[in-house]
Amino acid sequence: MFTQFRLLPSVLKARLILNFITKFYNMSLLTLIPIFLVNVVSTTMTSIVMTILILVSILGIHIGRKMPSDVKLSLVQLKIFEIIANIFLILFLIFGLQWLVIIVFILNGFLNAIRKPLLEKLVFDSVTKSNRAFVFSLNYWLNNVSISFAFLVSSFIFHGNILYITIFGVFCHVVCLFIITKCLPSNYKNTSTDTKKATGGTERTKYFQKRVTQCFFCYALGYFCFLTLENQLVNYISIFLNSSFKSEINISGYKMLTIILFINSMGVVILPLLLNKFINYENTKTFIVGSILFISGYCMLLIPMDFLFLSLAAMIFTVGELLQLPFQKIIFSEIIQFDNQMKYISKQQLLTQLTKFTGSIGIVLFSVIGNYLTLATFTILGVIGILSFLYSNKMVKSINS
Question: Residue 33: CB partners within 8 Å, gap ≥ 6?
């Protein structure tokens, strides 16, 4: 992996590092926001603030797709705003102005959401067909490394102190600002309008755009099904394990969930270092095998037999996740080359936010319908997801031909 990384263009390496640093700080802060809020306001108000954060994220993503064509200038402006917001956050934390702290939390979430489509675009704009599978798997790996280290840093280095993490955040934003100004070309523009277009008149263009829309719809359906399934791990599955899992070695359901999350986190960090040389992520068979493992692992979590069985389930869905996800990214990278890139990137980001709500709905729905019907629902979601991705891939090839 590291040899391949060294061979990437320097601009692409800078963009991947920029994504890593941004994700690292955001996760360090986001993991502590609910804990901080519970200590200063009521549980109900904490829930309201977290809901507001999701809503402003949706609004921010929508605004992000409409940012000016000069991506570098937009990112510089956003980073300066974030640095100023974090400085105010530090002052409000020092003087104990809790409601102003909450307002800045929401503002930070809004600015972060605006930036998300722009950072995604930087990576999609930089890849070629020869390196895209590696770049997408590497970007996914870096995201997971940043999440894992964020938990460690926020807990063991900063000891859950949100003031120290905010000061650290100012440093991260300054580093990102330096990377943006020094490593992005000064004439870097939003090239989403310079994508593949149909030729041959208005009717042909309309037909082409209709095919691209249909292709994205199939991709979005598969993405929605897989992410809805994945989000159940920290929603319905966590509650199910907490109430149903019993172990001879005195491990509670909550502790078992923590172990499953740990196996998943370590797996997505370590396994790519071993597998990337031997696997062709663009192969349809790799995607199908990975998807079957992914679905099977999640279904196995609904059969809480014992510690070893659930640990095996965690390993299975982790391997499946690693095998199927780059194929998804490749399909998406092809789709956004046909039409306005920012439009589809922001739609995907909005879909990600939507699945957070479906994850919460799953807690109520699956508790009502029972475990066996939940198992059947997981399987149906998985099958629909696989078929949707495969059909979307088929349509991409058809449009390209």
Answer: 50, 53, 105, 162
